[in-house]
C-alpha cells in the first residue's frame, strides 16, 4: 500500500444523527454538518453504514435494492428540493407531532410516511411544471441509470401495489420477477396501467433526488479534504429489486449467515447455531458468465458517492456460512441436537459454501475464489478504494490475500494478538489496516470496559480473563500504573482514544459512541430487539461542542498529541 498520511475518522450511522429541524431521522443535511464538525476537530474520515433503501426490518444490511438509496434519510425541505413548495411543506408537517419525532428514537413507519408525502408533493409540482433544465437532467438520469432503474421502479411500484408485502410468494405469479412482470403490467386495464406507470416515474424521481443529494455530500467532503467511507453489504433482501430483476444470480434455497461465535450470543439460537441472516447467496459462477456485470454496476454506483468502500463480511467472498432453513424457523431448531435437526432438513446442517476448509484443495479453492472477487472489486473502485471487514473466525488465507492486494483489514486491539496470545502493541500494527475498538454490532467500549470491571470482581476463569483484558488495555493505552477499577470516563477514555490514534494503522476509526464515552448501541446481532437501528445520538450536532465539552477536550487533546494530526 502506498504510504499516505494516516487518518483518524468517525463511524456514525446516518439515521442516528440529529440536527436542528430534522424530521425524526438523520439525513444528508446532518451528514454535511457532521463533515464540517469532524473536519474542525482534526478528523479526516467519516464512515457510514449502507445507505441503500431498507425494508420493514429497517436494517441497512437487509436492503430492498443494491442500488436504490434510502428515501427517509434524504433532506426533504424546500432548501434541498426546489420542487417542494413552502406552503405544501408546512401543510404536510402540520399533520404530525414533530417534537415527538425529533426527540425520540427513529419511528420508521411515521418518518417514512412523512418523507414519502413530502417527496410526492415535490414530484407533483415537478411533473406539472417540467422546468426545462431540471427536466432534462431528470431524463438524463433515467437514461444513464437504466441498467438498474427500470427494473427497480417496476419492482417498487409492484411492491406498493401488493401492500408492501416483502414476500414474492404473496404476489400474483406473473409479477414475481421482471421477465414476466412487464407483460403483466402492459395488459392491465388502461387506468391501472397508467397509474402503475406514474408510480414508477415517482420512484424514479425519488432516486434522482437521492443521487443529487448524495453527490452534493460527496462534493462537500472532497472540498473539506475528508474521506467518505461507504459500506457494501455481503447480502441483500431475499425479495429485493435485484432478485426480482435477476433471480438467476442468486441461490434462493439457502440462507446466508455466520457460525456461532463467543462475541455474538444474544440468544440461545445464536449461541448454539450462529447468525442466520436469511440472505440469498450469490451464484458466482453464473455471475462470471457476463463478467460480473451486476457486481460491477453496483460498485461503480456506490463509488460515485464515496471515496472508499468497506466490504461487509469479506469472509463471505471466500466462503459463506449457510443455513438450510429460513430465520423465521430458527426457534424450531434452538433446542435440537444436530441429529434431530438433520431429520428436519433432509440430512443437511448449517455449513460453509462452497467448501469448508476441511482439505488443502478446498482451502485453495476458497482462497482463490475470494482473491478473484477482490481483484474484480479493485478494478472498479481503484487502488486504495477498499477496506475489508474481516472480523470473526477468519481463515489464515484471508489476511494474506488482503495484504497481497493492499486492502486494509480490521484490527480490534483486544482481539488482535500475537502467536503467544498477547495483545499487539499499537506501534506494531500493519500500516495497511483499519484500527477500531468496536463496530456498530459491538457494545461500545465503555460498556465493555464496565462489564470487564464487574466480571473482574467475581471469582473463576471469567474473572481472571476480565482482569487480564483490563490490564492489557491499560498497557496498550500507556496507562499501566492505573488501577483496574479506574472509572472509564476521564484518563482511561483519553488514553484509549490516543492509543488508537497513535497506532501505526493507516486508518483509525472511532465509533461515534466511543468518541463520546456513551453506552448507546445501534444493533445487537442475532437479536430481534425492537430498538435495533433506531438509536439516535442524544444531542444535535450544533450542540456537541457544548454538551460534550469535557469529553471532547479529551478527544481533541488525544488527537493533537498523535502523529495523525501533525500529518
Overview of this structure, please?
The strands form 2 sheets. An 8-stranded parallel beta sheet has the order 9-6-3-2-1-12-11-10. A 4-stranded antiparallel beta sheet has the order 5-4-7-8. The chain is built from 24 helices and 12 strands. It is globular. The protein has helices at residues 28-40, 86-93, 98-103, 108-129, 132-144, 146-161, 178-186, 190-224, 241-245, 268-273, 284-287, 293-303, 315-318, 330-333, 338-344, 360-381, 397-404, 445-456, 461-476, 488-502, 512-515, 544-547, 549-560, 563-566, and strands spanning 7-11, 45-47, 227-232, 250-258, 275-282, 308-311, 320-323, 351-353, 386-388, 409-411, 433-435, 507-511. It is an alpha/beta fold. The longest helix has 35 residues, at 190-224. Strand 1, helix 1 (28-40) and strand 2 form a beta-alpha-beta unit. It has a domain at 1-47 and 425-567.
Amino acid at each position: 500500500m502506498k504510504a499516505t498520511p494516516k487518518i483518524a475518522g468517525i463511524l456514525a450511522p446516518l439515521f442516528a444523527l440529529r440536527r436542528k429541524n430534522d424530521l425524526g431521522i438523520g439525513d444528508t443535511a446532518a451528514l454535511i454538518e457532521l463533515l464540517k464538525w469532524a473536519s474542525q476537530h482534526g478528523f479526516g474520515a467519516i464512515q457510514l453504514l449502507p445507505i441503500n433503501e431498507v425494508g420493514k426490518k429497517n436494517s441497512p444490511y437487509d436492503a430492498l435494492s443494491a442500488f436504490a438509496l434510502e428515501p427517509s434519510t434524504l433532506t426533504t425541505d424546500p432548501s434541498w428540493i426546489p420542487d417542494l413548495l413552502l406552503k405544501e411543506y408546512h401543510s404536510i408537517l402540520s399533520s404530525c407531532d414533530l417534537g415527538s419525532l425529533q426527540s425520540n428514537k427513529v419511528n420508521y413507519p411515521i418518518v417514512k410516511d412523512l418523507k414519502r408525502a413530502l417527496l410526492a408533493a415535490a414530484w407533483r409540482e415537478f411533473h406539472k411544471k417540467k422546468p426545462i433544465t431540471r427536466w432534462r437532467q431528470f431524463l438524463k438520469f433515467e437514461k444513464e441509470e437504466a441498467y438498474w432503474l427500470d427494473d427497480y421502479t417496476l419492482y417498487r411500484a409492484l411492491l406498493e401495489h401488493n401492500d408492501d408485502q416483502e414476500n414474492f410468494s404473496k404476489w400474483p405469479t406473473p409479477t414475481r420477477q421482471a421477465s414476466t412482470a412487464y407483460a403483466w403490467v402492459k395488459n392491465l386495464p388502461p387506468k391501472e396501467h397508467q397509474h402503475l406507470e406514474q408510480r414508477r416515474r415517482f420512484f424514479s424521481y425519488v432516486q434522482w433526488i437521492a443521487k443529487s443529494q448524495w453527490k452534493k455530500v460527496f462534493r462537500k467532503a472532497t472540498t473539506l479534504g475528508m474521506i467518505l467511507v461507504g459500506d457494501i453489504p455481503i447480502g441483500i433482501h431475499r425479495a429485493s429489486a435485484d432478485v426480482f430483476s435477476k433471480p438467476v444470480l442468486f441461490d434462493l434455497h439457502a440462507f446466508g449467515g455466520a457460525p456461532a461465535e463467543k462475541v455474538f450470543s444474544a440468544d440461545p439460537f445464536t449461541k448454539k447455531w450462529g447468525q442466520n441472516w436469511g440472505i440469498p447467496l450469490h451464484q458466482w459462477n453464473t455471475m462470471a458468465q457476463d463478467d460480473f456485470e451486476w457486481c460491477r454496476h453496483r460498485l461503480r454506483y456506490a463509488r460515485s458517492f464515496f471515496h472508499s468502500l468497506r466490504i461487509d463480511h469479506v469472509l463471505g467472498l471466500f466462503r459463506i456460512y449457510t443455513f438450510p432453513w429460513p430465520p423465521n424457523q430458527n426457534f424450531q431448531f434452538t433446542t435440537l441436537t444436530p441429529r434431530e435437526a438433520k431429520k428436519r432438513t433432509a440430512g443437511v446442517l448449517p455449513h460453509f459454501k462452497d467448501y469448508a476448509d476441511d482439505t488443502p484443495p478446498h482451502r485453495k479453492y476458497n482462497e482463490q475464489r475470494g482473491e478473484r472477487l477482490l481483484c474484480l472489486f479493485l478494478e472498479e473502485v481503484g487502488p486504495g478504494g477498499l477496506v475489508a471487514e474481516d472480523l470473526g473466525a477468519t481463515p489464515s488465507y484471508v489476511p494474506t490475500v488482503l495484504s497481497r492486494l493492499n486492502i486494509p483489514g480490521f484490527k480490534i486491539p483486544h482481539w488482535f494478538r500475537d502467536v503467544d496470545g498477547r495483545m499487539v502493541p499499537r506501534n506494531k500494527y500493519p500500516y495497511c489496516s483499519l484500527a477500531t475498538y468496536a463496530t456498530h454490532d459491538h457494545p461500545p467500549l465503555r460498556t465493555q470496559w464496565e462489564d470487564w470491571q464487574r466480571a473482574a470482581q467475581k471469582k473463576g476463569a471469567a474473572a481472571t480473563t476480565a482482569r487480564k483484558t483490563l490490564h492489557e488495555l491499560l498497557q496498550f493505552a500507556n496507562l499501566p500504573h492505573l488501577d483496574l477499577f479506574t472509572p472509564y470516563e476521564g484518563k482511561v477514555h483519553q488514553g484509549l482514544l490516543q492509543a488508537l490514534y497513535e497506532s501505526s494503522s493507516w486508518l483509525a476509526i472511532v465509533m461515534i459512541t466511543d468518541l463520546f464515552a456513551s453506552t448507546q448501541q445501534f444493533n445487537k446481532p442475532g437479536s430481534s430487539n425492537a430498538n435495533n437501528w433506531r438509536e439516535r445520538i442524544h444531542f444535535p450536532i450544533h450542540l456537541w461542542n457544548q454538551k460534550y465539552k469535557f469529553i471532547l477536550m479529551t478527544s481533541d487533546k488525544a488527537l493533537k498529541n498523535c502523529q495523525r494530526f501533525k500529518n
